[in-house]
Design brief:
The protein is an alpha/beta fold. 36% of the residues lie in helices and 20% in strands.
């Protein structure tokens, strides 16, 4: 790979030396966030505390499974664990979304055996009880959506069918079986390259969002199978009409249509998830890494947080150690510029849920240790300026990061009511931690959970910036972030309550023998911010 951050072509990796390989791991300084899916393996209070301690920033509730009562019980335990650990842990509701599934079998059969080369007919009559000759499909418009020669993937691609003919009158599609397979009931189906006529939000999704998500104060919605910008605006309308306007939307890009409309989606969404599972069914698997790099880079330029998901440490569902390829996958996502990485079955159903979070955290921190953040800042800024003119807030954020880099500041402090200023600072990828002070608990959880390098603190008010500045400097000293003489860059506003950040200034930590006690918020006394509430 050739570096695109230098004035002349250079091979990438010049910032990695033998000392980099041999140096101790600084997992406590990790900038990349970790999303963990909750499930039976890890949903008790003690287990959740272990995952928080190991590095979980966002707890994912997968609404493809379970019911409202079960998820609420798990949410209560999560919040108890977060309170016990004095942590801001964001809550993500991941919608089930529209889906296409095979039907049920005749004669009470639990599975059928299919042979390569034989014919299998698919019918849109979902009441039909199938066999190895004919199966029901939940997508009513299947016969009008596919055409001869196209592929249909079933059960995560374990069964491949090729369309032979379509009969629109009967709603049936004749296919050829391309591989031997044993198939269970109600398996997922993917139609690569087909624009399916299904709603982004089903009735179940709306019920889950309104009657569980908004009601229980979730912080993030992961919207499955977002295909166009209007999908996002519709979800935002549902949120606004039901008292959930503060909830952020993360759009999951899972098919070719979503990729085709990615730029439009990026303009209206709050964040993006590179959902590589279904995406790998919808586009050729050898193209997924290209799509990942493309989506992450565009999200970085737009300043929208991006999550990389699916099978990152999949082997740890049953093994205590990941494969080397899996660690490389995590590290390469960090090098690509992802804000967060996600664990699914590794934590929800795995025997080694804590170890999975720990190795994820260590791998991310190792990748970050070999990044030249000064060059990265300039690269992001140059890429953004080639694309569009910086807004006032972005320009101030860029100036704050540049000042911090030039002065060797130990921390950037951002006073933010909505989290927008914090997002703009995180966009420019400073090498020092970003401490976000906000009066909103939800904003604190969102910043700590999704913005790279950000740690969030809840304060009563942002109005008295003079007192806050003194408190921040005390906190930096107690936490071991800075010592007397060190600089801290502060980004704040002089028009509190109007959402306007308009001031960058530098504070130097003074030697104060009369410093009042301020409770440090440490991660196992590691002298690192961990996203707690300022006392």
């Amino acid at each position: 790979m050739i570096s695109n951050t230098a004035g002349i072509p250079l091979l990438a990796g010049g910032y990695i030396t033998l000392d980099t390989v041999k140096s101790p791991n600084l997992a406590a300084a990790r900038r990349t966030k970790i999303f963990c899916t909750l499930g039976p393996a890890c949903w008790e209070v003690e287990q959740l505390e272990q995952m928080i301690e190991a590095g979980m920033n966002v707890a994912r509730f997968n609404f493809s499974h379970g019911d409202h009562a079960g998820h609420k019980a798990c949410l209560d335990r999560l919040r108890q664990a977060a309170e016990n650990m004095s942590q801001n842990v964001a809550v993500l509701l991941d919608t089930k979304g529209p889906e296409i599934r095979t039907g049920f079998f005749a004669d009470g059969a639990k599975s059928i055996t299919l042979a390569k080369g034989e014919t299998l007919t698919l019918t849109n009559d979902y009441s039909f009880k199938g066999n190895n000759k004919k199966l029901a499909c939940s997508y009513e418009k299947l016969a009008t959506s596919v055409k001869a020669g196209q592929s249909i993937l079933v059960a995560d691609g374990s069964l491949v069918l090729t369309v032979v003919s379509c009969d629109e009158a009967t709603g049936e599609v004749v296919t050829r079986i391309e591989n031997n397979a044993t198939l269970g009931e109600r398996k997922n189906m993917n139609l690569p390259g087909v624009v399916v006529d299904l709603p982004t939000l089903t009735e179940k999704d709306i019920d889950d969002i309104v009657n569980w998500g908004i009601k229980n104060g979730v912080d993030l919605i992961a919207a499955s199978f977002v295909r166009k910008a209007s999908d996002v605006t519709y979800i935002r309308k549902i949120l606004a009409e039901n008292g959930g306007s503060g909830i952020k939307i993360i759009s999951k890009i899972e098919n070719q249509e979503g990729l085709d409309n990615y730029q439009d989606i990026l303009r209206v969404t709050d964040g993006v998830m590179v959902a590589r599972g279904d995406l790998g069914m919808e586009i050729p698997p050898e193209k997924v890494f290209l799509a990942q790099k493309y989506m992450i880079r565009e999200a970085n330029i737009a300043g929208k947080p991006v999550v990389t998901a699916t099978q990152m440490l999949e082997s740890m569902i049953v093994n205590p150690r990941p494969t080397r390829a899996e660690c490389s996958d995590v590290a390469n996502a960090c090098y690509d510029g992802t804000d967060a990485v996600m664990l699914s079955g590794e934590t929800a159903n795995g025997s080694y849920f804590r170890q999975a979070v720990e190795i994820m955290a260590r791998t991310c921190s190792e990748a970050e240790s070999s990044v030249n953040f000064s060059v990265l800042y300039q690269s992001v800024r140059n890429s953004v300026r080639r694309r569009y003119q910086l807004s006032t807030s972005e320009s101030l954020a860029s100036s704050a990061v540049k000042t911090a880099v030039d002065m060797g500041a130990k921390c950037i402090v951002v006073y933010s009511e909505s989290g927008a200023s914090a997002r703009h600072v995180a966009k420019f990828r400073p090498g020092m931690p970003i401490a976000v002070l906000t009066p909103s608990e939800q904003v604190a959880r969102q910043c700590f959970g999704t913005l790279k390098g950000c740690y969030a603190y809840v304060v009563d008010s942002l109005e008295d910036t003079v007192s806050l500045n003194k408190e921040v400097m005390r906190e930096c000293r107690v936490a071991g972030i800075a010592k007397p003489g060190d600089a801290v860059v502060i980004l704040s506003g002089t028009t509190y309550g109007k959402g306007s950040t308009n001031q960058v200034h530098v504070e130097f930590l003074e030697n104060d023998p009369k410093m009042t006690y301020c409770r440090p918020h440490l991660d196992n006394n590691s002298a690192e911010f961990n996203g707690c509430t300022i006392s």
